[in-house]
């Protein structure tokens, strides 16, 4: 997979993060992911 796409933006990982029902830090991971997407202008 290339680091950047044809339009010049960075590419995203195609595989999801491992999920476990008893993850204590899932809310923090979601907030961090939303912040990253917002900083890239994807939200």
Describe the overall structure.
The structure is a single chain. The chain is mainly alpha-helical and 43 residues long. 33% of the residues lie in helices and 0% in strands. It is built from one helix and no strands. It has one helix spanning 26-39. The longest helix has 14 residues, at 26-39. It is elongated and about 40 Å long.
Brief description of this entry?
The protein has 43 residues and is mainly alpha-helical. The chain is built from 1 helix and no strands.
**Proportion of strand residues:** under 5%
Total number of beta strands: 0
Kindly name the structural category: mainly alpha
Helix count, DSSP H or I runs of 4 or more residues: 1
Work out the helicity level: 25-40%
Radius of gyration: 13 Å
The termini sit apart by 23 Å
Mean pLDDT: 82
Q: Sketch the major β-sheet.
A: none
List segments where confidence is low: pLDDT < 50 over at least 5 consecutive residues: none
Identify the quaternary structure here.
Answer: single chain
Overall 3D shape = elongated
Compressed to H and E, one letter per element, the order equals H
Keywords for this entry:
43 residues, mainly alpha
Task: Give the SSE map.
Blueprint: H1 26-39
């Amino acid at each position: 997979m290339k680091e950047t796409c044809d339009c010049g933006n960075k590419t995203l990982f195609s595989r999801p993060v491992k999920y476990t029902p008893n993850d204590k830090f899932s809310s923090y991971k979601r907030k961090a992911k939303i912040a990253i997407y917002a900083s890239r202008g994807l939200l």
